[in-house]
Amino acid sequence: MILLEENMIYEGKAKKVYSTTDPNKIIIYYKDDATAFNSLKKGVIQNKGILNKEITTIIFEYLNSNGINTHLIENINDRAQICTKVDIIPLEVIVRNVVAGSMAKLFMMQEGQVLSEAVIEICYKKDELADPMINDFHAVSLGFATKEDLDNMYEQTKKINTLLKDFFDKIGIILVDFKIEFGKDHQGNIILADEISPDCCRLWDKETKKKLDKDRFRRDLGDIEDAYQEVLKRIKGMTL
Fold first, then answer.
1. What are 151-174's pLDDT values in tens digits?
2. Where in 62-198 does DSSP place strands (E)?
C-alpha cells in the first residue's frame, strides 16, 4: 500500500497518521526519528520504526486477547498498521513500578527502588507546556476528561500493568515504568491507543539491569538499536 502525503492528517515525533476510505479507520506509520527532553534532543535510531511497530503489534494482540481493547486492527507492512480512529484524550497515563527517571529526580531517590504499590500519574499532553503533571481535579475542571473517563482509564491501566509485568517477567525483563494513551472511538468507547514499545517503557534486564529502552538514547549509552532488537527477540521467543 502506497501512503500518499495528501492523505496524511497528522505527523508526530515518532509516527505519521493517514486517513483511509473508512472514516472510522486510520493508518499509522512508524518513523525512525527519536526525541527526548521535550524534543530538545533529536536523532534517528536505525530501524526504530520497524522494531516499535512489531513490538507494539505483539503487545497489543496480547492485551486484546486478555480483555483490553486497543485500536489495533491489522498490519499492512513492516512500518504501518490499520487502526481504529479515536479522539485521543489529551492525557498521558504513566505507571511506575520502580523508581527511575523523573521520579528519582523529583524525590531525590536512587534509581532501582521497587515501589510497594504502582504509582499512577497523569500528564496534560501538550508539547508547548512540556507535558506537565496534573491531578484528577485539573483534568476534570479543565475539560480534558470526566470523572467517569478517569475511573475507566485507571481501571484499564491497572489491568494493563498487571498483564505487562507478567509478560515481561517471563522474558527476563523488569517493567520499570511506562506511558500509555487512550482515545474514544466513534461509539464513545475508551480504548488503548498509540503504542507500547521501548520508546515509552523503561525496560531493564532482570539479571544485569541493563537498560533496553530509549534511555540508551536519552543518556548516550550507545547500542540503542541492539537493545530494541533484544526486546523484540525475547518477545518473539515467548509463547503467548
1. 999 999 999 999 999 999 999 999
2. 72-75, 80-84, 87-88, 91-98, 114-124, 133-134, 173-184, 190-193
Q: What is the 3-state secondary structure (H, E, C) of 131-146?
A: CCEECHHHHHHCCCCC
Amino acid symbol at 149 = D
pTM: 0.95
Q: How far is CA 46 from the centre of its chain?
A: 19
Q: Which three cell numbers stand for residue 19?
A: 486517513
Q: 2 versus 183: which is more confidently predicted?
A: 183
Q: Is the pLDDT of residue 239 over 60?
A: no
Give every CB contact of residue 18 below 8 A, 6+ residues apart in sequence.
Answer: 3, 4, 7, 8, 9, 26, 27, 28, 29
Closest C-alpha among 48, 46, 74, 49 to residue 60: 74
